[in-house]
Amino acid sequence: MKGKSVVTLDDLSTDQILDLLRKAEYIDSHRREVAHTCDGRVIATLFYEPSTRTRLSFETAMLRLGGQVIGFAGSQLASVTKGESIADTLKTVSNYVDVVAIRHPKEGAALVASQASSVPVINAGDGGHMHPTQTLADLATLQSRFGRVTDLTVGLCGDLTFGRTVHSLIETLCRFGNVRFVLISPNELTTPQYVLDRINATASCSYVEVRDLASVMGDLDVLYMTRVQKERFFNEDDYLRLRDTYILDEEKMALAKPDMAVLHPLPRVNEIAVEVDDDPRAAYFEQVKNGMLMRMALESSVVGDELPGYEEFANK
Ligand code: CP
């Protein structure tokens, strides 16, 4: 994986994804052993869009591996305000660091960045397109809850048009196979055709599109809730009309299987009532922790630093 940019998870083989899951498991139980893995390394976090979890976990991941962090959060502080292109920014910043994480509001920005950079670039979210490291966090959460990322009925609910985490997750689960997707959204926020095409092209996967959440609750192993993405709407009235279409509360949780897992990439607005946080099926804060562990696994891998003791652990 050394030197590899990750724009989508298609940039990684299935074995590499499984290896990252195993590395994250190792890191979680060997924090001290891995604390100097990336001594002398530097990551740049270039965030042209707001973020709490993704930026802070990319940065914490490098700090916990012994490396350091530079970057900006909010393009108003960078030379993009003077008209600098993404390509020129990457041609510059990649002289300073060993790896770059970039978030940008435009689809395709991470690909452009990776083509201009002399060091690996990790997509931290490009518009409504993809968010591969969120998917790594999601996979780690499924793995820890079910011991597998396949043979599941996965409901995805909310903004399936603009929700880049949804697109990344569906595409990746299709690679593992045997997933039945239940796509729950209003008519205005259905799943893009290119994502449906991916499911259709996977013999062992299928989907249904529905409007009502309560009627499918009992079928689901996983419910992946999403926020209606205000920042991607052209029209405020449409956002206000659609934002509270789905609210997961205790009443709906009573319809679900006893071992269903509720995931959400966060931030949430109203779509999961706070009362659900105390339900053991709520897995969304576990997802946050898994995001940091998976980013530690990914950062160390793309810069080419071995986690001390990992090889022996992996061969057990
Ligand atoms: N899940 C996620 O991408 O959260 P942030 O926008 O806070 O980074």
Automatic annotation (TrEMBL):
Please name the GO terms that the record assigns under molecular function: amino acid binding; aspartate carbamoyltransferase activity
Q: Which GO terms describe its biological process?
A: 'de novo' pyrimidine nucleobase biosynthetic process; 'de novo' UMP biosynthetic process; amino acid metabolic process
Question: For this protein, what is the EC number?
Answer: 2.1.3.2
Reading the lineage from the top rank, the first entry is Bacteria
According to its UniProt record, in which pathway does this protein act? Pyrimidine metabolism; UMP biosynthesis via de novo pathway; (S)-dihydroorotate from bicarbonate: step 2/3
Q: Which residues form the Aspartate/ornithine carbamoyltransferase carbamoyl-P binding domain?
A: 4-143
For whether the record's keyword set contains Transferase, the answer is: yes
Listed binding positions for carbamoyl phosphate are R53, T54, R103, H131, Q134, L266, P267
Question: Which parts of the sequence bind L-aspartate?
Answer: K82, R164, R227
| Database matches in SUPFAM superfamilies | Aspartate/ornithine carbamoyltransferase
Q: Which UniProt keywords apply?
A: Pyrimidine biosynthesis, Transferase
Entry annotated with the keyword Transferase: yes
Reactions catalysed: carbamoyl phosphate + L-aspartate = N-carbamoyl-L-aspartate + phosphate + H(+)
State the PROSITE patterns in the record.
CARBAMOYLTRANSFERASE (PS00097)
All residue ranges annotated as the Aspartate/ornithine carbamoyltransferase Asp/Orn-binding domain in the record: 151-298
Q: Which Pfam families match?
A: OTCace, OTCace_N
PANTHER family from the xrefs?
ASPARTATE CARBAMOYLTRANSFERASE, ORNITHINE CARBAMOYLTRANSFERASE, MITOCHONDRIAL
Q: Which family does it belong to?
A: Belongs to the aspartate/ornithine carbamoyltransferase superfamily. ATCase family.
Q: What does this protein do?
A: Catalyzes the condensation of carbamoyl phosphate and aspartate to form carbamoyl aspartate and inorganic phosphate, the committed step in the de novo pyrimidine nucleotide biosynthesis pathway.
**Summary of subunit composition and partner proteins:** Heterododecamer (2C3:3R2) of six catalytic PyrB chains organized as two trimers (C3), and six regulatory PyrI chains organized as three dimers (R2).
- HAMAP family attached here? Asp_carb_tr
The protein here is known as Aspartate carbamoyltransferase
Origin organism of this chain? Bifidobacterium lemurum
Q: Which gene encodes it?
A: pyrB
